[in-house]
Specification:
Blueprint (H helix, E strand, L loop, with lengths): L11 E2 L9 H7 L11 E3 L8 H8 L8 E10 L2 E10 L6 H8 L4 E4 L2 H8 L17 E4 H4 L4 E4 L6 E4 L1 H5 L4 E4 L5
Parallel strand pairs: 4-6, 6-9
Antiparallel strand pairs: 1-2, 2-8, 3-4, 3-5, 7-8
Length: 183
């Protein structure tokens, strides 16, 4: 099957991709979202080409405007810490001290340390995805991502990516779509 975006050798329904493993793969295989599971696609990628500029050069210029990044943030209020995922277009950055802090009603918010993000998600750094996050996590998604017909996101591993309809992300557990998350 040909991928709807990018220049990948092939794409396959993510639920049937045998070498796709981890929490994201488990979540895809148990998918009950409004978007049919066979529209969640997996593409194999070279982890040595994971840097955004190199990735886009190798896999297609159209990915500049159709890729989304998922970052883990830590919000603190009254001595309690809340971890959340934030998904924005790769051409923008997460408004951590504005939109995230307000939405999570936190006194302070910042990007979670790499080791915390990896340990808490069970995913590889550089491949963290909003699909398959721990139960109860807020998943803040910029509205621009949900409006894309197709978007490229992480697969939970540095090798491989998921291509999903943007609206599929709005239906994730804990998802909140915000107009001003990416700046």
């Amino acid at each position: 099957m040909r991928a709807p975006i990018g220049n990948f050798e092939s794409a396959a329904p993510a639920g049937a991709a045998g070498h796709f493993t981890g929490p994201a793969a488990d979540a895809v295989r148990a998918w009950k979202g409004e978007v049919p599971a066979d529209q969640l696609l997996y593409v194999d990628t070279d982890p040595d080409k994971a840097d955004t500029a190199v990735f886009v050069e190798h896999y297609g210029e159209d990915l500049t405007d159709t890729s989304a990044n998922c970052v883990v943030v830590a919000a603190k209020r009254g001595g309690e810490r809340t971890l959340a995922a934030c998904v924005v277009l790769s051409t923008t950055r997460v408004d951590v001290n504005g939109a995230v802090r307000r939405r999570l009603q936190a006194r302070k918010a910042s990007f979670a340390p790499m080791d915390t993000a990896v340990e808490e998600t069970g995913m590889e750094y550089g491949g963290i995805t909003p699909i398959g996050l721990p139960e109860g996590w807020p998943v803040l998604i910029d509205a621009a991502v949900t409006e894309l017909p197709w978007t490229l996101i992480g697969s939970g591993r540095r090798r491989g990516k998921l291509i999903v309809p943007g609206k599929a992300l709005a239906g994730l557990p804990g998802a909140v779509v915000l107009e001003d998350l990416g700046v």
